[in-house]
Amino acid sequence: MAAPFDPWGQAAFDLSRDYVLTHSTPPVMVSNLLTNSTTRSVYRLHWNTIAIWNDFGARVIQYWNAVLQVDKQTNVMTGTAYGDRFRAVGNSAAGNEGDVKALINEFIQPAHSAAANGRDGAPRPSDRHSHLQRWEQGVEANALAGIPDLVMITEYGYAPRRVTVMVEVKNPWQVTPARIDQVIQGTQGIAIRCVI
Question: In angstroms, rounded to a whole number, what is the distance separating the alpha carbons of residues 148 and 44?
């Protein structure tokens, strides 16, 4: 795991927000030993609707095109920290949901936090963003009914403090496009749920 940024001891940030947010994530392989677990605990989240968000990609591009150029060009992470995290995750093998969550925690969460929330002293963007984190006791927002794997939550100091996104991690080899279509069409009752 990379050391925290020390503005007095480490090199200055040399990777831009644009670089961190537009480059591909590290490749993760599916392990030879796979779990069949559905991780259905008695208090998992269950949604009463599921649908395809057809314009998600277009909306992300629309948002990114509206981001100020100065925000895109601002350096938010050191190349060393980014590279260390990329190599730590790259070509890893995931065999269960815990593996997937650990890889998100090692690369996605710190990269997102540096770009969106000013992790380790990085400059914050002009607009506010929710903070991505693993769900844990003590997250004071919304009084959720259920336990998600990860949440995006508004930061302290910005009222009202609320959960803006809930993330459920699933075994990727069990969540195929065909099975998702079956759930949406109501022909298959597997434990894939999402908030719309």
Answer: 7
